[in-house]
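Changelog-adjacent note: as of this version, every example in the card shows the full chain rather than a window. The one below runs 362 residues end to end.
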Amino acid sequence: MKRIFTLLLAAAVAAGCSTGNKYTIKGNDEALAEMDYVLLQTIENGERNTLDSVAVADNSFVIKGEVETPTAAYLFFGAQTPEDPSQAAPLMFQIPVFLEPGNITVGKMENTTFTAKGTPLNDKQAEFNTKMTDLSNQFQTAAQSGDEQKMNDVQDQFLVVIKETIGANTDNLYGQALFQQMYYNLKPQEILDIVAMFPAESQEALASIKAEAENALKTQPGQPYIDIAQKNADGKEVTLKSVVETKGNKYVLIDFWASWCGPCMEEVPHLKQAYDKFHGRGFEIYGVSLDNDNDKWLGAIREHGMGWVQVSDLNGFDNLAAKDYAVQSIPSNFLIDAQGVIVAKNLRGEDLYKKVEELLGK
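Full-length structure tokens:
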């Protein structure tokens, strides 16, 4: 759930200048008392571009500028004004902001989170943030009371709000930015349907997301598996095909994991439970590590007793198999039958044991 609450907006076209396109960003709040400076930056391809840097005085600041077209940017707030204005350290917090003509105000929401509003795109963002905050509070209340049904209902509502908000804003930069940040919560076909709603001028910016969704469709249940060929701990190449076609193997679980991934290691007892119970009856695991350190990879295997097939190319998330299977986060897994068809995916916790038990019997 944590990721679904996070709203980090990708940069758009670089800002230009033209008369009559002036913006003013103002902040005035007691919470700024501990802040010394504010940086206004765009971020493109991981590179920061500082548009302005101002000091915070009397709990307030003002930034003025001009833009030719609406631009997605960030306000970085920090203490101890840095010698290099391109760096925001030590950074206290940051908020996304859309640069567009008008007066933009920065203030706190009810949950003390800062937000920008006052212009069309920023108001859309503030409205979405308010809805997300309300749903987040509902989820936390349900979690504290142990109401799983309510938690699931709120999770479903999160997705509804995300899809509705993007669908209502495919004609503007906010919709594109929100989609770029939230698409991973959607199903592949939903992603493709939404991409098709954007105008032609946005298609290039969304091309990689579209390609990713198209790739993900190839690994949905009912689709044939994609072969993997990577080396095991002994440096010998082991293909997924060889494991799937091994006599006696009825189901093979492709498990994407890494030694540095806490949630992955939390899944190990569940993997071992299913493996110990069903391995002798035709269940195998083909682990694909997204580690890039050989010693840490092999150390985790030994420490946790992960005695099934293990391979890696030691390229981290650049692992070719992870790309083929459109893996965006780990742990991720795919269950394949003896005919080479994906029958289930992302079986977590007890769900893995229950699914294999359902297929092989108690």
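Structural remarks: The first strand starts at residue 22 and ends at 28.
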